[in-house]
């Protein structure tokens, strides 16, 4: 089933140059090159001793937010909020490919907002974003990340006194239906699907890949994933290196045939 892997970057570049609705589906490994730790790498959050021995799943759960808001926000702010992080070559490469008509959408499990910062326009954030926040009062007052002060650790709405929570899907919470439907639609219409920087261990997000009907499925991840055997192209290398090179070859190679359509 695996395509010609003697030059996987060429294969991927060829696929994208002829694609009409390519989609990128990514995870935390997309942002490690921006200095944001993922969950499951050796240097990831799951290896770090935080949360007083409690699991990251609990510390980032709806139950923790409700029962122990101080602990929740300490953990959340320390580990998932990175206001100074900059987009890396995966983010900028995908934005370039979209602008040139080679990519229809980015679907991300990330909550860091870096795809938008890089200039991507069609981005489906399955797990929400740290950039958006709203208070739990009746009016649901909205706050951007830059409007949330560092203290108190549990942010309080200056308008109504309620807790301000991030628009992030916590463990124990449902994904946004419209975002899931739009993601399924994009995957269903895709003629190339690139999956990058994700362990594919988190459901229901990983389950969306079953909606891909096509034969050009590329998987780019440092380590093996449960879907390696089903992919047409498997690349165990840094995703920023691969996407950056593909974008350079397709858009900056000097070959007019390879440039934007
Ligand atoms: P994960 O389970 O931590 O898996 C990340 C995968 O990426 C691992 O298999 C790594 O081997 C791989 N990886 C790490 N760096 C690279 C790289 N440079 N190139 C290629 N592969 C790499 O993370 P998933 O996204 O699969 O799990 C989903 C969780 C993680 C979602 O709920 C996210 O919200 C959550 N998360 C998001 C962020 C973020 O927004 N940047 C950070 C940490 C966790």
UniProtKB/TrEMBL annotation:
InterPro entries: DHS-like_NAD/FAD-binding_dom (IPR029035), NAD-dep_sirtuin_deacylases (IPR050134), Sirtuin (IPR003000), Sirtuin_cat_small_dom_sf (IPR026591), Ssirtuin_cat_dom (IPR026590). Residues 2-261 form the Deacetylase sirtuin-type domain. Keywords: NAD, Transferase. The keyword NAD applies. It is an enzyme of class 2 (transferase). Its EC number is 2.3.1.286. Signal peptide: none annotated. The keyword Aminoacyl-tRNA synthetase does not apply. It comes from the Bacteria. GO terms for molecular function: histone deacetylase activity, NAD-dependent; NAD+ binding. SUPFAM superfamilies: DHS-like NAD/FAD-binding domain. PROSITE patterns: SIRTUIN (PS50305). PANTHER family: NAD-DEPENDENT PROTEIN DEACYLASE (PTHR11085:SF4), NAD-DEPENDENT PROTEIN DEACYLASE SIRTUIN-5, MITOCHONDRIAL-RELATED (PTHR11085). NCBIfam families: PRK00481.1-1 (NF001752). This is protein acetyllysine N-acetyltransferase. It comes from Brooklawnia propionicigenes.
């Amino acid at each position: 089933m695996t395509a010609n892997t003697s030059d996987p970057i060429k294969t991927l570049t060829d696929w994208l140059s002829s694609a009409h609705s390519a989609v990128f589906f990514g995870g935390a490994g997309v942002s490690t090159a921006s200095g944001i730790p993922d969950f499951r790498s050796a240097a990831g959050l799951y290896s770090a001793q935080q949360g007083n021995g409690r699991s990251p799943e609990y510390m980032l759960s709806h139950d923790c937010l409700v029962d122990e808001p101080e602990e929740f926000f300490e953990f959340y702010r320390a580990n998932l909020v990175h206001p100074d992080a900059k987009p890396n070559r995966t983010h900028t490469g995908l934005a370039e490919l979209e602008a040139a008509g080679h990519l229809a959408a980015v679907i991300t499990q990330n909550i860091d907002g870096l795809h938008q910062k890089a200039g991507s326009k069609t981005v489906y954030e399955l797990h929400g974003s740290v950039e958006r926040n709203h208070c739990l009062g009746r009016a649901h007052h909205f706050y951007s990340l830059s409007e949330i002060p560092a203290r108190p650790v549990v942010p309080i709405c200056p308008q109504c006194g309620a807790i301000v929570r991030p628009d992030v899907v916590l463990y124990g919470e449902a994904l946004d239906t419209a975002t899931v439907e739009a993601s399924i639609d994009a995957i269903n219409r895709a003629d190339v699907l690139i999956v990058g920087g994700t362990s594919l261990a988190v459901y229901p997000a990983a389950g969306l890949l079953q909606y891909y009907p096509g034969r050009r499925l590329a998987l780019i991840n440092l380590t093996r994933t449960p879907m390696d055997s089903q992919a047409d192209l498997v690349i165990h290398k840094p995703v920023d290196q691969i996407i950056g090179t593909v974008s350079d070859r397709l858009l900056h190679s000097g070959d007019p045939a390879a440039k934007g359509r």
